[in-house]
Amino acid sequence: MGPKDLCLMNDPLSSILTGFKGMRKEKKIPLWLRSNVVDPALMDANSNNEALEKKGLTREMYKARKHQTGKHTLGERKHLSKISKGSKSFSHELGPKGGICLIHPRPHSFVDLKQFMELQGLHNSQLQLTAVLKLALVDLEERHRQANATIKEKEYLISNLIKSKRSLIERAFKLRAEPESAALDVSSLFTKIERKDKIENGNRVSTSAN
């Protein structure tokens, strides 16, 4: 492939012209055959089709040439100017002066930022709740310690009361036993006295009889 072929490949108008010329060369024999063999009505229809194809190719060539040279009609220029003005005004409205900043997509979008802020708020709330629960736990532990101390003190007092009760019961039994023994002693003493009196009376009677 030479430089000329490269120029033809880069130039769209040249490629269209080359294809059009090749098509004309390839259609010489079919046209001659149709003129001698095919029905004239069919030939007219085919010729009309060929004319339309040539017209379409010519239009494409014209558009390509205008695109290369930049030559446009007055209506086309007005239409292009309207499009350019509209695009400029639209881009101006979308620009920073229009109040809208066009920001390129970033790794963290607004939705991600919103979710992050919500999660951060939940995390802060969790930390606050944890701190409150820790304080409540410390307070409960202190109350539990005080309650245990009070319970131990009351248990000590109860145990002392039980011991005192037992000692009092034992003392009462002792006090009850002492009067009983004293009463027995007194009754035995009275019995001895009565016996002594009887003996003395008997002795007196015997002496008086003698």
Structure description:
The radius of gyration is 67 Å and the shape is rod-shaped. The chain contains 6 helices and no strands. The chain has helices at residues 3-10, 12-26, 28-36, 40-69, 74-94, 110-209. Helix 1 (3-10) packs across helix 2 and helix 2 (12-26) runs antiparallel to helix 4. It has 210 residues and is mainly alpha-helical. Helix content is 87%, strand content 0%.
Helix content: over 70%
The secondary-structure class comes to mainly alpha
What about the largest sheet? none
Name the poorly predicted regions.
Answer: 1-10, 22-29, 31-39, 88-94
Number of strands: 0
Mean pLDDT: 69
* End-to-end Cα distance: 194 Å
Succession of helices and strands:
HHHHHH
Kindly estimate the percentage of residues that lie in beta strands according to DSSP.
Answer: under 5%
Number of helices: 6
Q: What's the Cα radius of gyration?
A: 67 Å
Region (Disordered): 68-90
